[in-house]
Structures are given as C-alpha cells and as structure tokens.
Amino acid sequence: MRRDTPVALANLRWFARPDDGDIALALDDLFTDPEARGSGAASALLREAAAIATEGGATVVRWITANENTTARRLYDRHATSAGWVTYDMPAAPRTDA
C-alpha cells in the first residue's frame, strides 16, 4: 500500500440533543481498508472525531455497530463506552392520511 493512499475514512454529522439541550457528533460510518486494519488508522479517526466534537461544542460522539462486529467492538471498547441503546429500523411507507 502506498503511503499517499487513504486507508480509512469516517463520515461525521452534527445532531441536536433536545432532551439535553446540546449538540453531538454522529459517526455514521468508519471504514478501514482490510490491509490497513490494526495500523492505528481507525483509532486516529476516533481521536480526531473527539477533537472535532470538542471544537464544535458537542458533548458526545455517538455511533452504532452490529452486535456481531466483534473486531470493531474491541476497537470501540478501547475508546468509548457502550450506551446500551437498542436500535430499530422501520421501513419507509406512504402516508395513510392522504
């Protein structure tokens, strides 16, 4: 792998936390090239996300992952604490009041 080739990416977005009266930073996606896993790239991105959150006035960086994604969860457990939330997906549907 060339030194000038990106090996990891993170997609971040701000979101409001009305119950807490503050904002947070969502980590919507974190990907590391399989050849670069274990290199520290993902940890560097997580540290950068935390710095961006602080600079932007956010109180937390939040993300979800699959329960069976044990490799990623080992990484995440070194940087964060599981929030204990259960995530649901509901399919989009046409309005019923039209």
From TrEMBL:
**In the UniProt record, does the keyword Isomerase occur?**
no
Keywords from the named record: Transferase
Top-rank taxon of the source lineage equals Bacteria
A molecular function (GO) held by this record is:
acyltransferase activity, transferring groups other than amino-acyl groups
Q: Where is the N-acetyltransferase domain?
A: 1-98
| Annotated signal peptide | none
Record's InterPro entries?
Answer: Acyl_CoA_acyltransferase, GNAT_dom
Q: Is Transferase one of the keywords UniProt gives this record? A: yes
Pfam annotation, one family:
Acetyltransf_1
Task: Output this protein's name.
Answer: Histone acetyltransferase HPA2 and related acetyltransferases
